[in-house]
Design a protein that fits this description.
The protein is an alpha/beta fold. Helices cover about 35% and strands about 20% of the residues. The chain is built from ten helices and 15 strands. The radius of gyration is 19 Å and the shape is globular.
């Protein structure tokens, strides 16, 4: 699909960035990938690595020079505990990075720019409401996501500005993910999200397996390979500006996730305890995936059990005990 096209993956050593690097190389693309704190984790004759602090405009300009397309997968990220203690941790570095890279791409004449927003930026419109693309700016993000949510929204507005509000516009794509999990995810407990954290506790045979909150929180979790397929379909769509949810469109409670991981890994005598003193986020967040289905022909195909099985297999191969 992208044979000989030149891509920049900003944040190529991260979870989504690594998956994108592998997918684009499989499509015949030439890939430049930036890294900062993590060292390169993949090698290929059509892949070059560039260390870059993307908070620096000069580093952004060097990163985008000569490429056709940019995927912005670099971000300062953290888990629920860190966000609760330091809620502004995402704001300044990400706003600076996103703004500088968009401007550098625009000045370099990049053909299209893709940005990963977040489902966390949506407002809380009730537990039974499936969040659709038009819902984003109907109200503020929930307080627990407020700083990071508005950071994501601001960059979405920048993407819209570059695509439609200036002369010589630059087409942009905004992806709103649900909870992505799978091989390559963050598994350190300080930064991991719920699915990765619980998978690791099962693998390590924690006794007991501790779940923050009641376990009744409901999430849309999507396996990384399915997610990347949706991203590629969205990017390939002809449009000056596109915003789309890429999610599974299914509901899983934290209890479902934990019980599935226990069953998949045959942890027969597992004990699960629920600690309601630990921080929780939003009780239920699900997504309307009709736009991705109808416009892109996208549908997530990997079951929760199969996705967890593949993730456990990868984890044991990567981190042998």
């Amino acid at each position: 699909m992208f044979n000989n096209d030149k891509f920049l993956i900003a944040g190529g050593t991260g979870f989504l960035g690594s998956a994108l690097v592998r997918r684009l190389l499989s499509e015949g693309a030439h890939v430049r990938a930036t890294h900062w704190q993590r060292e390169p984790n993949h090698q290929h004759d059509r892949l070059t690595w560039q260390r870059a602090d993307l908070r620096d405009p000069a580093a952004c300009a060097a990163a985008v020079a000569g490429v056709d397309y940019v995927f912005l997968a670099a971000a300062n990220t953290a888990g629920a505990a860190v966000i609760t203690e330091t809620p502004l941790i995402h704001v300044t570095p990400n706003v600076v990075m996103n703004a500088h890279l968009l401007e550098a791409a625009y000045q370099a004449g990049v053909k299209k720019f893709l940005y990963f927003s977040s489902g966390a930026a949506y407002p809380d419109l009730g537990s039974e409401h499936r969040l659709a693309e038009d819902d984003m700016f109907r109200a503020d993000p929930p307080d627990v996501y407020y700083p990071a949510g508005w950071m994501k929204r601001y960059t979405e507005i920048l993407c819209h500005t570059y695509a439609r509000k200036i002369r010589r516009p630059m087409p942009t794509v905004v992806i709103r993910p649900s909870n992505v999990y799978g091989p390559g995810d963050k598994f350190d407990f300080a930064r991991s999200h719920v699915t990765a954290a619980q998978i690791r506790r099962v693998i390590e045979r924690h006794r007991p397996i501790q779940v923050w909150g009641t376990g009744d929180d409901v999430r849309d979790v999507i396996y990384v390979d399915d997610f990347i397929e949706g991203v590629i379909l969205a990017f390939a769509r002809e449009a000056d500006f596109l915003t789309v949810n890429i999610a599974a469109g299914k509901e899983y409670s934290v209890k479902d996730i934990v019980r599935t991981a226990i069953a998949v890994d045959n942890f027969e005598d597992a004990e699960v305890v629920f600690d309601t003193t630990k921080p929780q986020t939003i009780g239920k967040r699900t997504f309307d995936v009709s736009l991705a289905r109808d416009l892109l022909g996208f549908e997530a195909k990997t079951s929760l059990a199969e996705g967890i099985r593949r993730t456990i297999e990868w984890y044991r191969q990567t981190y042998p005990s």
